[in-house]
Amino acid sequence: MDAGGKISFVKTDNTADFFDVVNTIPTPNYEFSNRFKYQENINAAYLNFSKEGKAFSIQAGLRLENTNIKAISLAIP
Hints:
This protein has a 3-stranded antiparallel β-sheet with strand order 1-4-5, with no helix packed on it. It has a two-stranded antiparallel ribbon with strand order 2-3. It is an all-beta fold. The protein has strands spanning 2-16, 19-22, 25-28, 34-52, 57-75.
């Protein structure tokens, strides 16, 4: 018999800033610029059972997983 589990956390915060350059002067382009925030939490557990006989073998398993995600794309003013 085997058993195990895993917990995973991911958190990112990315900003994409775009600029228009006119006469070597950069001006922010708010139409294309944005900020993306992402959070993810994964919880998983498994149980595995195996049995070997003389003429056969059997294996059964169970896996449970729960994923929570929060993502938001924000316009930059």
